[in-house]
Write a structure and sequence with these properties.
single chain, mainly alpha, globular
C-alpha cells in the first residue's frame, strides 16, 4: 500500500564494520621472525657468522666493498619481492645494529624505488586498463586514496603489520603518484621493523638476550601500531571494501 510498510518489514541493515587485520598475515610475520632467528643460531653454531675466523676472512677479502655489495644485493632482492625484514635481519647479523640498519634501509629504499620506477615507466597503461575493467572495483578505492594523500596513505600502509611490500611499490608506480612523498613515507614506514629485525639479527649473532628482548618488545609495539592504523585509516578500508559481501 505505502512504501512505509515495506520499509518497516525489511531487515535492518548491519552497520559497516571497521576492517580487521588478517591474522594469517600477523602469523606469517611472527613465523618469519622465528625462522630468521633459528637460521641465525644455526649459522652461528656451524661457524658461519661474523666474528668467526672463516667469515672474518671472507669479509676482509671484500674489503670496503662489503657494505656496497650488501646494499646492491638487498636492493635487487627486495625489488623482486624478498621480504624486507630478511634484509634488515641480515644487516644486523652481519654489520651490527647501527651499520646494519643503515645499510638495510639503503637497500630497501633502492629496491622500492626500482620497482616503483619500473611500474611507473612501463605498467601505467596496463594499470589504467585494469582500473577500467573488472579489477577496477577492488583497485580504484586504494588508488584513489594513494592519489589523494600519497604520503599519509603510503605511511599508514607501510606501518601496518600485513600487506605486500612489492605489491604496494608496483601499485604506487602504476597509480602515477609523485615519487618524493611516496619514498619519504616508505623510508619512515620502514624504520620500525628495520630496527626490530636488525636488533634481532645482532642479538642472535652475539647471544645478546637484552637485544632480543628489546626487539621482541618493539616487534609487539609495531604490530599494535599497525593494528590501530588498520582499524582507523582510510587506506585500510580501501584494502577491504565491502566486508559485508
Amino acid at each position: 500500500m505505502s512504501d512505509g510498510s515495506a520499509e518497516a518489514g525489511a531487515a535492518p541493515r548491519r552497520p559497516a564494520r571497521a576492517p580487521r587485520p588478517r591474522l594469517a598475515g600477523l602469523w606469517r610475520l611472527a613465523l618469519l621472525a622465528a625462522g630468521l632467528a633459528a637460521a641465525g643460531l644455526l649459522l652461528r653454531e656451524i661457524g658461519l657468522s661474523p666474528g668467526t675466523e672463516e667469515m672474518d676472512a671472507l669479509l676482509r677479502g671484500q674489503g670496503s666493498l662489503a657494505p656496497l655489495l650488501f646494499v646492491l644485493a638487498a636492493a635487487a632482492a627486495t625489488a623482486v619481492g624478498l621480504p624486507r625484514q630478511v634484509v634488515a635481519f641480515l644487516g644486523g647479523y652481519g654489520f651490527g645494529v647501527a651499520a646494519g640498519m643503515a645499510l638495510a634501509m639503503a637497500g630497501q629504499l633502492l629496491g622500492a624505488a626500482a620497482s616503483y620506477g619500473w611500474a611507473r615507466a612501463i605498467a601505467r597503461p596496463w594499470a589504467e586498463r585494469r582500473l577500467a575493467g573488472r579489477f577496477g572495483p577492488k583497485l580504484r578505492p586504494l588508488v584513489a586514496t594513494l592519489r589523494e594523500n600519497p604520503f599519509g596513505a603510503a605511511l599508514a600502509l607501510r606501518l601496518m603489520p600485513v600487506g605486500n611490500n612489492l605489491a604496494l611499490n608496483l601499485l604506487a608506480g602504476m597509480s602515477g603518484i609523485a615519487a618524493l612523498p611516496f619514498l619519504a613515507a616508505t623510508a619512515l614506514g620502514y624504520l620500525p621493523q628495520t630496527l626490530v629485525f636488525a636488533l634481532l639479527g645482532k642479538g642472535v649473532r652475539v647471544d645478546g638476550a637484552w637485544q632480543i628482548a628489546i626487539a621482541a618488545a618493539m616487534f609487539a609495539g609495531s604490530i599494535a601500531l599497525g593494528v590501530w592504523l588498520w582499524r582507523r585509516h582510510r587506506a585500510a578500508r580501501a584494502l577491504d571494501p565491502g566486508e559485508d559481501g
